[in-house]
Write a structure and sequence with these properties.
single chain, 185 residues, 6 helices, mainly alpha
Length: 185
C-alpha cells in the first residue's frame, strides 16, 4: 500500500510541475502587449525576447540537466528546478525594467529545464513498466492542459489584475509543489 501511495504522490508532484511550466510559457504571450506598454523602451524585438528567452534557456539546458540529474540525483535537480522556477517567477513579477524581466525569464527557463529534464525520469523509475504508460499519459495531459489554459487564464489575469499577476499566480503553486517534495517524491 505504501508503494501505491508513493507512486501516486510522485505522479501528483510531477503532474503539477508539468502543468506549471507550459502554462507560464503560453500565458506570457498574451501579456506581451501589456508588458510592452508598461516598459516604454521596449520595441517589438526586445518584447519578443520576453517569451523567447524562456524557451531558449529551457531548450538549451534540458538535455544537459537531464544527464547531470542522472548522475547527481533526479529528486535533487527536480527540487532545484522548482525552487529556481518559483523564485524567478516572483522576481519576474517585480521586475523594474525590460532587461531585468528578460534576465529573470532566462532563469525561469533554466528552472523549467531542470523540471522537465527530471520529472519524466522520476516517473519512469517509480512506476513499473505495466503502469508507466498511464502515469506518463496523465503527466503529458497536464502539459497540454497548461498550454491550453495559459492563453485563457493569462488573458483573464492580465485584463483584470495586470501582467504581473501571471507570474504571481504561479508562486503559490510552486510553493505547494516544493512542500510536497520531501514527503511525496
Amino acid at each position: 500500500m505504501n508503494n501505491v501511495v508513493d507512486k501516486n504522490s510522485a505522479l501528483l508532484v510531477a503532474t503539477l510541475a508539468s502543468f506549471l511550466t507550459p502554462f507560464m510559457g503560453s500565458s506570457v504571450n498574451i501579456a506581451l502587449p501589456s508588458i510592452g506598454k508598461e516598459f516604454f523602451a521596449m520595441d517589438a524585438v526586445l518584447l519578443s525576447w520576453v517569451a523567447t528567452a524562456y524557451l531558449l534557456a529551457a531548450v538549451m539546458f534540458l538535455v544537459p540537466f537531464g544527464k547531470i540529474a542522472d548522475i547527481h540525483g533526479r529528486k535533487r535537480f527536480f527540487t532545484y528546478g522548482i525552487v529556481i522556477f518559483t523564485v524567478s517567477s516572483f522576481l519576474s513579477a517585480i521586475s523594474t525594467s525590460a532587461i531585468v524581466l528578460i534576465a529573470f525569464r532566462v532563469l525561469q527557463g533554466v528552472g523549467s529545464a531542470m523540471i522537465f529534464g527530471t520529472s519524466m525520469a522520476i516517473l519512469t523509475s517509480v512506476f513499473p513498466v505495466g503502469e508507466r504508460g498511464k502515469a506518463l499519459g496523465i503527466t503529458v495531459a497536464a502539459v497540454y492542459l497548461g498550454l491550453s489554459l495559459g492563453p485563457f487564464l493569462g488573458g483573464f489575469l492580465t485584463q483584470h489584475f495586470g501582467w504581473r499577476s501571471i507570474f504571481l499566480i504561479t508562486v503559490p503553486l510552486g510553493v505547494i509543489i516544493i512542500g510536497f517534495i520531501p514527503w511525496k517524491l
